[in-house]
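Quick one, probably user error.
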């Protein structure tokens, strides 16, 4: 009968050959969590502002509808009320859509800024890790040649 190879021992040997710097892993996790927190803050801030704009827009529309549905003295006043409502609604829509666009623009700028900052941090961390790895490799090479 053939004996099944011990995969656990093999993986231990493989993982032992490639040591992992736990501090670097923790730093990477913390950096990722920090970036996620900042990005979430940007998203939640935008959602809150969008909700405020939507609420204000709804209140304005309801106020205008209330005004439009009041009893008028002349039949032509109803037509004027409808025209005024349509005109004010179109103007309001343009204003509120511009406000939504400003929120979107701010979210885009904040996100790009955060990603650029994270990229710079990642680059400096990667450079430091590569330097440390090179130093460790040189030290290991020196030790092996001395023996």
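Nope, works fine. Designed sequence:
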């Amino acid at each position: 009968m053939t004996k099944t190879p011990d995969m656990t021992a093999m993986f231990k040997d493989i993982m032992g050959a490639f040591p992992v710097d736990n501090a670097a892993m923790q730093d990477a996790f913390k950096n990722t969590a920090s970036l996620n927190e900042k990005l979430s803050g940007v998203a939640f801030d935008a959602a809150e502002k969008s909700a405020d704009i939507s609420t204000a827009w709804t209140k304005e529309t309801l106020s205008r509808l209330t005004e439009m549905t009041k009893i008028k003295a002349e039949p032509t006043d109803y037509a004027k009320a409808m025209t005024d409502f349509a005109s004010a609604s179109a103007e309001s829509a343009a204003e509120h859509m511009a406000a939504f666009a400003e929120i979107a623009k701010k979210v885009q700028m904040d996100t790009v800024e955060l990603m650029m900052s994270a990229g710079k941090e990642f680059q400096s961390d990667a450079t430091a890790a590569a330097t440390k790895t090179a130093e460790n490799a040189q030290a290991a090479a020196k030790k092996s040649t001395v023996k």
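The chain has a mean pLDDT of 87.
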